[in-house]
Amino acid sequence: MRLCVNFVPLREIFCMAQVTPIKFEINAQQGEARAGVLTTRRGQIETPVFMPVGTAGTVKGIRFEELETELDARIILGNTYHLWLRPGIDVIKSAGGLHRFISWNRALLTDSGGFQVWSLGALRKISEEGTEFRSHVDGSLRFLSPEVSMEVQAALGSDIVMVFDECAPGEASHEETERSMNLTARWAKRSKEAFNRLQSEGADTGRVAAEGLSGTQALFGIVQGAGHLDLRRTSLEQTVNIGFDGYAIGGLSVGEEKSVMFEVIEDIAPRMPKDAPRYLMGVGTPEDLVEAVARGIDMFDCVLPTRNGRTGQAFTSRGKLNIKNAQFTNDTRPLDESCGCSVCRRHSRAYLRHLFMTGEMLASILLTHHNLAFFLDTMRGVRQSIRSGDFPKFRREFTERLKANGE
Amino acid sequence: MRLCVNFVPLREIFCMAQVTPIKFEINAQQGEARAGVLTTRRGQIETPVFMPVGTAGTVKGIRFEELETELDARIILGNTYHLWLRPGIDVIKSAGGLHRFISWNRALLTDSGGFQVWSLGALRKISEEGTEFRSHVDGSLRFLSPEVSMEVQAALGSDIVMVFDECAPGEASHEETERSMNLTARWAKRSKEAFNRLQSEGADTGRVAAEGLSGTQALFGIVQGAGHLDLRRTSLEQTVNIGFDGYAIGGLSVGEEKSVMFEVIEDIAPRMPKDAPRYLMGVGTPEDLVEAVARGIDMFDCVLPTRNGRTGQAFTSRGKLNIKNAQFTNDTRPLDESCGCSVCRRHSRAYLRHLFMTGEMLASILLTHHNLAFFLDTMRGVRQSIRSGDFPKFRREFTERLKANGE
């Protein structure tokens, strides 16, 4: 064992110069829309890709078997904040990392915990060093910083690590946003330094051999700057200067107008490095995904399909549908007549409504399944249409169909 | 359509004389333990069989796909009381019966609603005519009688219908139990009359052609009498005199001592018709099932695997296990090392404990799945051992192993 630990840094020096932790290849483009392949140490991911959110080590309400087979999700997201608090890093380390702990052998991306801590509002205090906050679980005082976040994410052993950032509110002033953005840049630098140290120390529990890849974790930077385009551009420059394996746009979909969100994406995405994946964090509805792809985004995550599934809302090709609605009492049609998922092939709106109204867990299970199927199928359609040169047609028809039915 | 309705009674007269709604064949016996095949209009069921409980049209926390494939449940139970209140009979009728409404094409048994109404305690008033009660859903005044129960079960279209009975409490006096038992006998007669009328009127929504069977619903009688063996024998006689397709022992596992339950089964089961299935209602733990099989029982239903799964209790070959227990925090073993279910093949106790402690739905889903797998596998083992002549050995080893581990 000792030999191995000593050996890691040497191997790093040798390998890091030649191979990267991920590879990203664009294989079709139409306008700004890009279709590509992201190769991670845990397999290939076709982009644009939607990542189901697996907050506490489970994509809520669905078994991994479904995600692997019918839905074919190639990458899911885990939340550093939640996993750090429960079950805690010792438990996950003792299991050999997050992949082993939860039994998921495909790619995992972990956020940094920054957004969750920021969302705690009054419960947190931000300083240059990091963020002090009270755990929502037991009220205990905790401290999260770039260094701690990188340590936790190394222990989780995710395949893609996010830098620890600070998020400015949607309505923040130019001054406030600039201060926050500069802090994010300093934290990004510290994140990278801590990340590199942890990689060389072999702290990454998820390390696996992968052909043509270094086998280490990949690290993504995050562009902040709220709705201020000049700050967004500066933030992008700061982030690219530090240098990361991929680049994310953070701090959108946090209360700002949708037009602001698209203005930022439209301005920033084309300026992002072309040869690295572009990840739009926490976004969005099916129409948001298609519109962001049209502006050059490659990766997405969002709780909408799972969270809304649990509250009775289904996403369909003809718009949203609230299964609670009395009009579905005797409706023998599937949720979405154009959907081929196992829920739509088998169950009626009437049955799903009944399950929801009686508080049956199966309502959440089935609506979550369908919603994830709809999001992942939409992205499949997006990728195919970019490859076949039909993306503008796909985008137009998709958007028109969504409006067709005011259910 | 009119022609069809007119035609049904004629066909009944012709068919009923020659074919039955179910067939039951014992193909191996060892002591009192019997292994057989129950043929219903919706396929064959090997007995002894455990029926997962699908109260409101769903076996809580599990998809039908899992029940059909991995678990291979051939029959599930539906609750007349719950389905009658929600979604109501009009909705289920409009969908074409319960099988179609929930999309389950295998056999369904429905209880009569008698036990649920009886369980309401102070909220119900029993008369000769039936039971008046307040709905637990909306407080509305409802009335359930043999005739209403048969009408509801015909609309549900279940493959096996239970008579409407009254259940005496475990601690009831001889006099009180006798009065209740006689009422059950009168209700059983009325149930059968109403049932026959409804069958001849074609009210059964689940009617399907089946080779060698009448295609109509089957009706089971229920033996009551609490812990009083003389009354149990009288009740059995009354029930057999009316004549049913199968016979159930009701009113057990309702608060009496376990020794009383086995005393009743031991006395009554061998006196029940040998050529009809014997169903022990609402029982029980894995050891109860094996012990009742040893005394001649063929069918079981119980909420234990599903309900206890939701509260964090796993049934294993070495006894029960409470996943909340801190000792499992870092336990990388599966719930049951001898279990081959998809949960035990994939997930550790540590992960399941984490899911339960964080309130994740997947905890209930996975524990329910394992518990049902354990119950159904146990019955598979029971059937095989009876057929191979090894049941006493199976029973002895099964019971010893359960005690082996005091987890």
Task: Give structural notes.
The structure is a homodimer of 407-residue chains. In chain A, α11 packs parallel to α15, α11 packs antiparallel against α16 (391-404) and α15 (361-387) packs antiparallel against α16. Chain A has helices at 2-16, 64-68, 80-85, 89-95, 98-102, 114-119, 146-156, 174-200, 229-242, 258-268, 286-294, 304-310, 342-346, 349-357, 361-387, 391-404, and strands at 23-30, 33-40, 43-47, 49-52, 75-78, 107-110, 124-126, 131-134, 141-144, 160-162, 218-223, 246-249, 278-280, 299-302, 313-316, 319-322. Mean pLDDT of chain A is 94; it is low at 1-17. Chain A has 407 residues and is an alpha/beta fold. In chain A, the strands form four sheets. The first copy, chain A, has an eight-stranded parallel beta sheet with strand order 4-14-13-12-11-10-6-5. Chain A has a three-stranded antiparallel beta sheet with strand order 1-2-3. Chain A is 44% helix and 18% strand. Chain A is built from 16 helices and 16 strands. At the A-B interface, α4, α14 and α15 of A face α4, α14 and α15 of B.
